[in-house]
Amino acid sequence: MSVTTHGAVAASVKRPRLSATAQHALFAYGLVVPTVLLLLGLIGYPFLYAIFISFTNRVVGNAGHFVGLANFRFLVNSPDFRASVWNTITIVVVSDAAKLAIGLSLALLVNQRLPGRGIFRSILMLPWAMPAFVVFLTWRVIYQPIGGGLNLILTGAGLYSGYIDWLGERATALPAVIVATVWRGFPFWFISILAALQTIPGEQYEAARVDGANAWQRFRAVTFPGIRQVVIITTLLSSIWTANSFENVWLLTQGGPSDSTMVFPVLAYFGMQTMQLGQAAAVSVTMLPVLAILVFAATAMAQRGAED
Amino acid sequence: MSRASSWTRRHILGASAGAAALAIGARHGALAAPAVQKGSTLTYWGGLIFSDQANKTLTDAINKWGADHGVRTEVVMINQNDTVQKVSAAIASGTMPDALDVGLDLLIVLARQGVFLPVDDTYNAIGKDHGGWLPPVDKASNLNGGRFGIPFGISGNMLLRRNDVLSKAGFPNAPTTWAELVTQSEKIVKPPFFPMGFCLGNAGDGNTQVNVLQSYGGRIADDSGKEAAIKSDATRAYLTWLKDAYDKKLFPPGVTAWDGAGDNNAYAAGTIAFAANTGSVGIAARKDDPDLYQGTLYSALPGGPKGVISPIGPQLRSIPKTSKNPDGAKALFEYLAQPGYTGAYYANAIYGPVLANEEQLSVFGGKDPILAGLLDLVKKGTAPGFPDVYNAAYADVMNSFLIPKMIQRVVVDHWDFDRAMDETQAQIQATYNKYT
Amino acid sequence: MRRTLLLNRLGTYAALVFAALLILFPLYWMATTSLKIPRDILRTPSLWPHAFTWNNYRILIENDGFLTAIRNSFLVSATVTVISVAISSLAAYSLARFRTRFRGVIGRLILFAYLTPASLLFIPLSIIMAQLQLGDSLVGLVLVYLTFSLPLSTWLLQSYFRSVPRELEEQGTIDGLSRIGALLRIVLPLSAPGLAAVSIFTFTGAWNELLLALVLITSAGKRTAPLALNFLISSDTLPYGPLMAGAVLSSVPLILLYFLAQRFMVQGMTAGSVKG
Prior knowledge:
heterotrimer; A: mainly alpha; 12 helices; disordered N terminus; C: mainly alpha; 13 helices; 72% helix
């Protein structure tokens, strides 16, 4: 395959021509330059800044000085630390699993040529159609013990009449947060997987059917490989976002009651409110290694499955 | 002269240092008002409060002042919930306005870092012109011997009560002690009506429990402001009171996860009898639910065995050191202290007065129960943090909601008092250690 | 044969309707609240309004410059989406098709953008924006949102691009197209579902974002829709009526977008395109 060079190379100027592979590589790098530049410029500095100040006692208005691991020590010794780790893992794993199950099932359902699928698809994207804080304030009201939508329905359906304190009791607070989080977040999975399903050529299903495969075997042989990459990336991104997610916990329970829903972003917020930037940064930096490992693992899996 | 030090390198419009006083209204021999440079600009960040009318009064007054003095004013109202984020970002990026409204707690933290200009001259001038600052306000705004903000209103919690329900049950008078409040509650509790609408969650309202704790003699830290002192018999007495009331189901379900609006919503829903609130509940009721408004009375917070702890929360106007128009700002502050403006503002806001002659304003005359209650608060309220030392560590403990967390350990996790107190003691000590 | 198809269809519809009901319940609450008078919202909560009122919408539109905020949101989100899809398509194409030495590193590096939450990044970001003279401007907001949308778009588009058979592009270059031409004429059209998905994500993300808008935008006239909604909440008072009315209004453009975009999610665009 010949590679045509773009732009004139004046034949009269004796300039060493770039080899075909070098031009190839230049072109390839050139395509990513805008993205990388923007990211390095706008995120690179803040990212490094955040890591740097976590080792200082910086407050707003005063750069502070280097304090080594003091912020981290304070964090690890606080009673909320263990709860935060446990809660974050629980929220991420459970909501990922739920969103995957829901997103996948719904995507498979609306992928078929049904009349009215456009309407269903639009409806299924609605949890995304408003800012996060509105969503969680709404859920807070739904969870209200007295007069909240959930209890109203339970009472109306004759299932229970009482004042279940969904958000204020240890047993139900975390599940309540997870349910609201899943409700808000599944459209992301739904759409990613749906788009991935679309790009699987129909012939592959035909071929499998001709070979005598049943629905489950078709899923395993055709569907799953087709969406595997997208599912891996979606899982990775959704996990990172959920781990860093603040509004879902803060607007529902503020990290309470006791430490039943305490997560790292809420701890960081406390530090922020006291203008303790170093402390707040340390909380986020604590999560960094774990999230970075996730990135490496997921991208390795994704690249492996897509060897060109 | 302190004014010289207020000039920053970016003060392009060099107002002449000894300019003759440009009187703003009649002034009698007070300190020369700072010269206002015509053609300068002034950006002002006002504190957004619930009353649209009050916000408009402030904006219009500032713009009118600007028009009268040839200053181009730009007023932006900042939501109180977002002030910390906005101010942090603005300080870091050097985009602070020329003047802004700020609460005392934020002012204290930032003044320590030298973010604000000292405004003693303006403070003294205003005090002199208006009969002097009210003593509690004067004391609270004195930060290590300097004034970094001009108070313009006092906020604070009052006890709201459903007088219609209580007087019918035989309690025409407000409870004066927390124990009495429990007694009254026991008589009127009737699900879904749960009388004690006091937030026990991680919110500013949850920190009202700190005041209850202190009224029982409990302390966050000792008098030096360095050693945690939460574990004590006084705290135990407080926790006994609390657990007793909670076990009697006098608190509505959900209080352990309430946010700042929890008590507002519950009171408006008519499901609680008592709330500790700044008056926003009353204003909302006046607009949306006249029956509820009529049935509500306001009084001081009840006391414990060691007295009443009812902190005042001053709101102040301040000038960042990076301000490009500090003289204009100071002149504006003096203008905004005039009774013509303050009368109009107080009528629609929920603040108590700060100057002696403001007490005489008709709005505080007693017709409006909310404002009457706020006047009472100013006169009888306690200093912020009292009896604890209100330092940065104390503010940190408040911002981390360590006391509501202790309460939640007791009522949600059913820990015994000592275990909960031990955990909180350790946390408070670790927090205080950060600041040594 | 027809009976199984019918049963299949019925089953599918039943499942979809069930899912739709679960999803719609909170939205139903929002919509009905926006039509209730304030006293009813809190004092007499119910699943159906006792008395209907358009007042909440009226307050919002008349007093608060809300429609300007929606317009601002639209400008910002549309700009971010168009630029983001363009830039990330190029980057995704490179990462998907060219085996360069630093491909893996670049791929991972751009994901690091998401590792620190916005609640920490907003301070250094506002410093950068101030230095670029882009503080309190919609352009600055576009730039910031663009940066946050690129990693997601790039990675997802990579996956979608990879599923386009290579033979098609090779065919194209044999027929005389340049690599860019192959991208534009062959890969992009066949990845339409992926592009639609990425557009939805980017537009929605930009439309709903609050914290960065809060910190970077100060003037009232430049507020975006979430900011305008946020301003309804002052300290401890939550005006549910106007807030829900605002949420309903601000969701209309998004719903329109979703309805339009999902029409591009059609299966089998690559069907039958590989000849032989």
